[in-house]
Amino acid sequence: YYSPSKGDYMRLYKRKNIWYLDFTIEGKRIRKAVGTSKKEAQQALDIAKGKVLSGKFDIREFDPSITLQELADLYIPYAKANKKSWERDLTSLRSLLPVFSEKMLKDITPFDVEKYKLDRKERVTPATVNRELALIKHMFNLAIKWKRAFNNPVKEVKLFKENNKRRRFLTQEEIDKLIGCCQPQLKPLVITALTTGMRKSEILNLKWQDVDFGTNLITIKDSKGGESRQIPINDTLREILFEIKKESQHEHVFLNIHGEPYKDFRTAFKKAKNGAALKDFTFHDLRHTFASHLVMANVNLKTVQELLGHKSMQMTMRYSHLSEEYKGRAVNILSRRIGSEKWHKSGTTEESKNIKKAEKPIK
Fold first, then answer.
1. Residues 37, 8: contact at Cβ < 8 Å?
2. What is the pLDDT of residues 260-269, one digit of tens each?
3. Max CA pair span of the chain
4. Bridge partners of 25?
5. C-alpha distances out from residue 271 to 35, 195, 263, 266, 275, Å
6. Are 278 and 170 in contact (CB under 8 A)?
7. 278-314 residue pLDDT tens
8. Is the distance from CB of 59 to CB of 45 less than 8 angstroms?
9. Residues 6+ apart with CB under 8 A from 244
10. What is the per-residue DSSP string for 67-95?
11. Residue 161 has what DSSP assignment?
12. What angle do CA 87, 92, 94 make, to 5 degrees?
């Protein structure tokens, strides 16, 4: 179909077993997937032609694409209802939306995503970039499912390689420095992370109903692994929580200076971290610090796994090298304690003399 007077046209084309209706109308080009059958595609083309000729054509029927901002508005309620880590998605969206919010989904190309990836890498870690790309990829997949998009440009973009073996943890001296640099409102959150190994989201969502002062246990009901777990409260943390409880009427344990549950505390933590001169360190590394010090204290890995809420022992085994290292040090300490310098001097004891006599060949 072609209208010379207006310059409009309609045609069909096929790509990867999908038939598309491709046309311009009112100076705007539109492409729409119409099925895998050529017969179905031809029927869609005939219907579109009929509507144009009868003056009943509505461009909105053939242009379901929306902006990324509109998709985000649809996605957030979905994430709240279906994902435990939806708050992490909000953090990613704060970086994605300034770049893509006004773009139509159909206009976002693999090149656009690749450019975002490279630009973003200059400011944050590869792991953070990967989390953001994973989110927008997931959103595009949902948009396709919801008939708001026809393809996913993020599928064409490779993620960065991540160093998953990295396990930065604090020494006791660094722990003392960090706590000393924390503002009063931040200090309880840092101590909670250090003494329980709880994730940031678990700390922010912690409620008093999950804190039992009678049994000295914190119950995590909605952990990342999907299973609940219990974490003992040590004396230091118990005293801190008890003081907070006396002043609080809110269901959440940790509140900001406005008396509301925290949404984030990145700025305060960054200030404390810089004050303690800690390099290459994140709040999540407090969880690694908790686990590392347990392993170095010879706590068995099964217990560490249960405290961290790891679904598999494989995740916990990342800390096993610390256990082996400290076992080696323990053996050397034992050697120094029960050993004697005379053992290293050949032939200075009666035992060694007798051994040498026994080793002499018979003439």
1. no
2. 998 889 899 9
3. 122
4. 28
5. 55, 21, 17, 9, 6
6. yes
7. 988 989 999 999 999 998 888 888 998 999 988 888 8
8. no
9. 188, 253, 254
10. BHHHHHHHHHHHHHHH-TTHHHHHHHHHH
11. P
12. 100
| Residues with pLDDT less than 50, the chain | 4, 340-344, 346-349, 351-352, 355-356, 358-363
Surface-to-core class of residue 143, CB atoms within 10 Å of its CB (0-12 exposed, 13-18 middle, 19+ buried): buried
Burial classification of residue 153, based on how many CB atoms lie within 10 Å of its CB (0-12 exposed, 13-18 middle, 19 or more buried): buried
CB < 8 Å & 24+ apart, contacts of 111-115: 112/153, 113/153, 113/154, 113/156, 113/157, 114/157
The count of residues in the chain is: 363
What's the pTM?
Answer: 0.56
- Local structure of residue 58 (DSSP, 8 states): -
Q: Residue 352: CA atoms inside 13 Å, Cβ hemisphere, count?
A: 8
Tell me the one-letter amino acid at 318.
R
Query: CB–CB of 179/187 below 8 Å?
Result: yes
Nearby residues of 69 by Cβ (< 8 Å), 6 or more positions away: 97, 101, 102
